[in-house]
Write a structure and sequence with these properties.
The protein is of the alpha/beta class and 1057 residues long. 43% of the residues lie in helices and 9% in strands. The strands form six sheets. It has a six-stranded parallel beta sheet with strand order 12-9-13-14-16-15, sandwiched between helices. It has a five-stranded parallel beta sheet with strand order 3-4-5-7-6, with helices on both faces. A five-stranded mixed beta sheet has the order 18-20-19-21-22. α4 runs antiparallel to α7. It is globular, with a radius of gyration of 35 Å. The relative contact order is 0.06.
């Protein structure tokens, strides 16, 4: 109170500066756009108009003609004026075009106006020149205001007038408080002012006056030196270990490239994060044998993978042969480029080098760990998720989404570490600003506890002695790009000049030599073991006692200890070290190798330690305390854990057909899934996730039975509480309602699909979604799932370019099965009948959980109702291998074979009777997977080619004779065409190519030529080509059914008015 009274007195004495007020007014009223066109442009008195006047007149003429936007104006006019389609206007074309537009020019005006547009004086006006000339100067970009005072976290607002209009209650008292604030700023400076405001907000919160906390705090370490934890180990020993691991990681990459092959790799990233990584390994990261779960999940920064190999080598888990074969995997002796569980299934757990997917995946994994715990499927109370992210990776939308989800879900079991070395792959992350401050605002605003670790111990002494805040202000005003430059130049005199002398602070470092100053500056917080330990310790306490996720923003140097790499824009691309690089690196780290040895890229450059050395004993001791080595993947043998339901109990609902009742395969799936979820222990482990389309897919009836997972319960009364199918939420709910987020849903699916390994708690995920928004939208994530050895089902509902008839171009999917084939771990299925869906689901469960195969099933489901037939005898093998004969042909002079799949099989069946009118018998085959047919055929051909022993594929056995075959589906023609090399005779494919559009199913199928009439004409035409019937027959059929070669397509044709 006394301090505030003194401040108030200072405020009353302070005079207001009119000039200062003017400056403030001007800052808030910068114009956001250019001066309106033509405003203030004088009209000359001469008869010859200037180009600017002509431009204004031309715009007026265009406006009279009703032409508005400049983009369409310039494009349309230019296309008409360019008579010879040369993509440029000469002087004659230009003048003629201007005249046609209604503007008459004199010869002089024509010359000057043409010159105005002809910016490069080439004698030709291109479209770009015309558009730019017509547009004029670009308006000032309003976001440039964000650079005002951005280093303090203050972004100017244009809402000053709103603030002025707010009620002030006691106006005089309000004014006195504001004057007091100005007085503190004037007499005590910014640091004191900011401190007082923070203290006031803290006290207000304690008194129950809840005010949102600021999202950006001063550019200092969050944890003061006075509250740092005591370091629990021998620092010198740990630094020696860090140096050896950092050395081996760099040499592993460099020597691999020196030996030839251009295998690549990264040296700078692990050099920056090594110390953080090592403190975590020695003191915090819990192994698989730690109690209360299966230890921690570590999502390693992918480009730092050599560091994990280097440590595993010292631990004795990898051999020198393996690390000498870095990125040489074909022979099975090397280690993978990045974290790839598919390639190193006993080592890596989480793939992280599709930028952004690691952060997103880690968040949903932390969320799923809580789900497992609340549902009683696994004790995950002591399992944390640690995520290492590069500051450049924070540009990815997935990274930002991850932050939002983690904060919303209050994932206190999540700790993120952002490696802020200020560098992307090409250059600075934010050269003009302060990326740590930006990230703090993002994370804090999302609900994270933020720990900033910026300054190392020596330089932090200057920060904590900065009583007036002038050094802090100087550092906050130094952009990251300048910090990077100073680190790279490694010149103490330059640091002194650019930071201290520039801001009148030379007295702050007068007691240090340039060498001492440089040593302090070159040791940021991310390389200070004591400060790293304190940050990790606080994060761990937050995880155990707090109710929100934590992020550590740690400042490091990319290429640390390797001065010829450090801070350079090229450091990410540095794959090899020269002899002088290696000597300098060796000396900086204290590595005991002779100069001559460094010249030879062999195993002698890798530092090995004896099993009884102090370093190895310490590493093993610490990892034993924490539950074992990491990274390590230990999947459960699910086939030995969970009893699978029988065919009769879960999958046989439609074996006898639907008894005349029409039903879609989407609803078939829903009924089969319900049976599976009701199947005892197995059913408890089925996880269903939906992207806010449950009612579309017939799953709303699941809500009251299985309930929607809500970790904090249902704290409201739903609007449908009095109905049977009410929206029911519960902490132990089985359904994961993902909202409108396919990107988030697929990450939840991956967390479930890999829980058999991450927690040895198998769950079987089913993600159902609009098929178009699967592989097309989250294909990269599905590839990550395959790498992570996921096991589960993806259900592409409302499939088919003509079956989902009303939704149009963005929804109608006819290509996801083709995309699915590009993923080696995915098996794609296109079932037509209910019994096929049941058998495919059963086979998938058997492969994943009965045979422990790391496969993914993608199954299409259509929304067109049809009466489901009973299952014919003896078709199970054909359903699983990809095709089977559903219906024999009736006796006839000529015969064709029709292949159908999905909902379009009905068109093939309808074509049978139509073909009979032409004396043609047709057998119908159901193709459940063209993709699996093609894969097996390719594999069979390879065996034949390499052994000389003929191995006949299933497709060859079934379709390899000389028959006429017509395939029809709601897929692109490229999908059924996959099997064409193995189909005998004439093979014709009908499919739904091109963009989708809205119409009736009948109209769409005629447009794409996959209706029954098109099948008939294709079959007759093939018979005529084979010489079995006259060519007149298909010609008459085309006329009869109204099929024409012309097919106007607005989506693909050149558009003309």
């Amino acid at each position: 109170l006394a301090a505030m009274k003194r401040s108030l007195q200072f405020g009353r004495m302070a005079s207001r500066s009119l000039a200062g007020g003017s400056v403030r007014h001007m800052a808030l009223n910068w114009r956001h756009g250019g001066t309106p066109s033509g405003v203030g442009v004088p009209r000359g008195n001469s008869s010859t108009r200037t180009p600017e006047q002509l431009l204004q007149d031309l715009r007026s003429e265009f406006q009279k003609q009703g032409i508005g936007g400049l983009s369409s104006l310039s494009a349309n006019w230019f296309a008409r004026a360019d008579a010879n389609v040369s993509k440029g206007l000469d002087k004659d074309e230009f003048r003629a075009g201007i005249t046609q537009a209604g503007l008459t020019l004199s010869d002089t005006e024509a010359e000057k106006f043409f010159a105005y547009f002809d910016a490069d004086n080439s004698g030709i006006v291109t479209y770009g020149e015309f558009a730019r000339g017509l547009r004029g100067e670009m308006p000032e970009f309003s976001a440039s205001l964000a650079f005002m005072h951005q280093y303090t976290g203050h972004f100017p607002t244009n809402q000053g007038r709103i603030r002025a209009a707010r009620p002030s209650f006691d106006v005089t008292e309000t004014q006195e408080w504001l004057e007091s604030l100005e007085a503190v700023l004037k007499h005590w400076g910014r640091k004191r002012t900011r401190f007082l405001l923070y203290e006031l907000m803290e006290e207000a919160g304690r008194l129950g006056v809840n005010i949102p906390q600021p999202v950006i705090t001063p550019f200092i370490n969050t944890i003061p030196s006075s509250t740092e934890s005591e370091y629990p180990a021998d620092l010198n020993l740990e630094r020696r270990i860090s140096n050896i691991i950092r050395w081996n990681a760099a040499v592993m990459v460099s020597d691999a490239n020196k030996r030839g092959g251009g295998v690549g790799g990264h040296i700078g990233t692990f050099a920056s994060i090594c110390d953080v990584f090592e403190v975590g390994m020695n003191h915090f990261f819990r192994g698989k044998d730690f109690g209360g779960g299966r230890g921690d999940q570590i999502w390693f920064q992918g480009h730092a993978a050599p560091g994990a190999y280097s440590r595993a080598f010292i631990e004795g888990r990898l051999t020198v042969e393996q690390i000498m074969n870095f990125r040489r995997e074909a022979a099975g002796k090397g280690v993978s480029s990045y974290p790839h569980p598919r390639l190193m299934p006993d080592f890596w757990e989480n793939p992280t080098v599709s930028m952004g997917l690691g952060p997103l995946g880690s968040v949903y994994q932390a969320r799923f760990f809580r789900y497992l715990h609340l549902r009683g499927l696994a004790d995950t109370s002591k399992s944390r998720v640690w995520t290492f992210i590069g500051d450049g990776e924070m540009d990815e939308p997935e990274s930002i989404t991850a932050i939002s989800v983690a904060g919303r879900e209050k994932l206190n079991n999540l700790i993120m570490v952002v490696n802020c070395n200020y560098q992307r792959l090409d250059g600075p992350v934010r050269g003009n600003s302060k990326v740590i401050q930006e990230f703090e605002g993002t994370f804090r605003g999302a609900g994270f506890d933020v720990i900033k670790l910026i300054w190392g111990g020596k330089f932090n002494e200057l920060i904590e002695a900065d009583v007036d805040g002038k050094l802090l202000e100087a550092l906050e005003q130094t952009p990251d790009g300048d910090c990077q430059r100073l680190h790279a130049k490694a010149d103490g005199a330059l640091v002194r000049k650019d930071i201290f002398e520039k801001h009148g602070l030379l007295d702050r470092v007068a007691h240090w030599s340039d060498i001492e100053l440089l040593e302090a500056f070159q040791m940021p917080g991310g390389h200070d073991h004591k400060k790293i330990y304190s940050a990790f310790k606080q994060a761990e306490e937050n995880s155990e006692l707090g109710g929100r996720p934590t992020v550590i923003l740690v400042k490091t140097l990319k290429g640390f200890s390797l001065q010829t790499f450090l801070g350079r824009n090229t450091v990410h691309q540095k794959k090899t070290m020269s002899d002088s690089d290696m000597k300098g690196f060796r000396d900086a780290l204290g590595i005991p190798l002779a100069d001559e040895q460094l010249k030879v890229p062999d195993a002698e450059n890798i530092i090995s330690l004896a099993k009884d050395s102090a370093e190895v004993k310490y590493i093993q001791q610490q990892r034993n305390k924490l539950g074992g080595f990491l990274p390590r993947r230990t999947p459960a043998k699910v086939s030995a854990l969970v009893e699978l339901p029988s065919h009769k109990d879960a999958y046989a609902i439609f074996d006898e057909g639907s008894k005349g009742r029409e039903i879609s395969t989407t609803m078939v799936f829903a009924q089969l899934l319900r049976k599976m979820m009701q199947s005892g222990e197995f059913g408890q482990r089925v996880t269903l996730m939906v992207t806010d389309e449950s009612r579309t897919f017939g799953l709303d009836a699941f809500f009251p039975v299985f309930k929607i997972h809500a970790p904090f319960g249902q704290n409201y009364t739903p609007v449908d509480a009095d109905q049977v199918m009410k929206y029911a939420e519960a902490p132990n709910g089985q359904i994961l309602q993902e909202g409108i987020s396919e990107g988030g849903a697929i990450m939840t699916w991956i967390a479930s699909a890999t829980s058999y390994a991450s927690q040895q708690a198998p769950t079987l995920p089913f993600l159902i979604y609009y098929s178009m928004f699967g592989f097309q939208r989250v294909g990269d994530s599905i590839w990550q799932a395959a790498d992570q050895r996921a096991r589960g089902f993806l259900i592409g509902a409302t499939y088919g370019r003509t079956t989902l008839n009303g939704e149009g171009l963005q929804h109608q999917d006819g290509h996801s099965l083709l995309i699915a084939l590009t993923n080696p771990a995915v098996k794609g299925w296109d079932p037509a009948f209910g019994y096929e869906m049941g058998l495919i689901l059963e086979r998938g469960v058997q492969e994943m959980w009965g045979e422990d195969k790391d496969v993914i099933y993608y199954i299409t489901a259509y929304n067109e109702n049809m009466a489901m037939p009973a299952k014919p005898a003896g078709v199970d093998e054909g359903i699983i291998r990809g095709c089977y004969k559903f219906q024999d042909a009736k006796p006839a002079k000529n015969k064709v074979r029709l292949l159908g799949s999905g909902a379009i099989i009905k068109q093939a069946l309808d074509a049978v009777d139509l073909l009979a009118e032409y004396g043609v018998g047709a057998e119908v085959w159901s193709v459940t997977s063209y993709g699996e047919l093609q894969r097996e055929a390719v594999a069979s051909d390879r065996v034949t080619r390499l052994t000389g022993k003929v191995e006949k594929s299933w497709v060859s056995q079934c379709l390899g004779d000389g028959s006429v075959t017509v395939a029809v589906s709601d897929n692109m023609t490229a999908y059924p065409s996959l099997i064409s090399p193995w189909v005998g005779g004439i093979y014709t494919v009908l499919g739904a190519d091109g963009f989708g559009r809205s119409d009736t199913r009948e109209a769409l199928r005629r447009f794409h030529e996959i209706d029954s009439a098109s099948v008939v004409v294709a079959a007759l035409d093939s018979l005529a080509t084979a010489g079995k019937i006259s060519s007149d027959v298909p010609a008459k059929a085309r006329t009869k059914f109204g099929l024409k070669p012309e097919r106007p397509d607005i989506c693909m044709d050149v558009y003309r008015e």
